[in-house]
Amino acid sequence: MQAIEGPPGLRERKKRRTRDALIRSALELFSLKGYEGTTVDEIAAAADVSQRTFFRYFTNKEEVALSVQDMAESRFLAAVLERPAAESPLTALRTAVLASWDGIEEAIEAVVPLELHVRTYRMIQETPQLLAAHLRRQAELEDRLAAEIARREGLPAQDPRPRILVAAFSGVMRETSKLWADVAGGDMAELRGTTAAYLDQIGPALAENWRS
Amino acid sequence: MQAIEGPPGLRERKKRRTRDALIRSALELFSLKGYEGTTVDEIAAAADVSQRTFFRYFTNKEEVALSVQDMAESRFLAAVLERPAAESPLTALRTAVLASWDGIEEAIEAVVPLELHVRTYRMIQETPQLLAAHLRRQAELEDRLAAEIARREGLPAQDPRPRILVAAFSGVMRETSKLWADVAGGDMAELRGTTAAYLDQIGPALAENWRS
DNA sequence: GAGATTATGTCAGTCGCTGCCACTTGACCA
DNA sequence: TGGTCAAGTGGCAGCGACTGACATAATCTC
């Protein structure tokens, strides 16, 4: 049972610390010896827990590598859900990404150094297994986004337009994220700029008003 | 050394037979006991080879599950490369998919029963690991498509428009493929219809003429 | 502080996958 | 035609990811 949110007790705080320690150890080892070159045993040892415990916090090795990225995506989804229904779908998505980036650096730094996260992001793109897992999560996110947009616009589930829009939007996001990690070296201001510029390229092209 | 294509000798024919047998055995077992419920040992045994040999034909268990799907994608890519440069990007993609579907049922039947392929496709969507691998391959395909379109249109590599277009196009393809497997039960005529209809939804919306 | 919960460690075992080496089989040529 | 070379195959040993079962230790609750 869960009381409606008390101050977290010792147990919860300890769990959080262990989890963060596992993430930090994992990302550091990954960036040092590569993803495949790092064993779960090593990660667990570095965080001072048993291998079995690692698998109680993360269902598999991929998950720990994607955990920070995951947080960023949760923020984005949450931001989308908060957008007023009056905004057009594309505007809502655009505003939501930008909003979800406010204070994200601090949120990341609370777990791992920002630079480590950037290196991890690059590693994800280069490691087939991780890229695959990452794309699957993205696809799940796209599903939820499309469903939310269909809901907002009052469209039946079969209407393909939300999915097409979300696909185009996600395509932009994937590109700009890659540029952010590879070219910009993790600079958020530059990411905002590139994203806005790239989104402007679909804006006019996809801006059919579905309601008129 | 490879002579420029002689008639395949006994050795080649035997390899082909083994490979096809492995695919058939694998897909049948998958559809019977599920992907994770099937071991590579079982697949190898069913095809009458050793486990070691299985891994000489497929780098991993995923690959055999995606092998037929892979063939379809190769056909599509080849069809795109054959499109005349005069066609607009979206038209080229559209014509290429439809063209790549001519005779595809026969090509599939040469390896496995069509119905088994449809069931496999459904399984891919439902099995996280397979979906992930599938999406990664799709992403690779998208990269190549975008590069080809950029080349055709004489655009610099940074221009995001080819990628956005390809992302939207692929979004449509993913949707219609799912419908094909789930709703249409593998009927190609229906797939063509749905695809055309869905593509019409982005056609006008994305039909900026990049050259004018 | 006793007793119920929950987190952790240990251990044994399965499965995917790889390197290594010995053996067989089809290809090619004198 | 027979012999040599290259390529395909099997068996085995071993690593690493992951899981179930059980015992132990740490918090929580009253």
UniProtKB/TrEMBL annotation, chains A, B:
Keyword DNA-binding: yes
Domain HTH tetR-type: 16-76
Record-linked InterPro entries: DNA-bd_HTH_TetR-type_CS, Homeodomain-like_sf, HTH-type_TetR-like_transc_reg, HTH_TetR, MftR_C
Signal peptide: none
Keywords noted in UniProt: DNA-binding, Transcription, Transcription regulation
Top-level taxon of origin: Bacteria
GO molecular function: DNA-binding transcription factor activity; transcription cis-regulatory region binding
Residue ranges of the annotated DNA-binding region, renumbered to this chain: 39-58
Coiled coil: none
PANTHER family: HTH-TYPE TRANSCRIPTIONAL REGULATOR RUTR (PTHR30055), MYCOFACTOCIN BIOSYNTHESIS TRANSCRIPTIONAL REGULATOR MFTR-RELATED (PTHR30055:SF238)
Protein name: TetR family transcriptional regulator
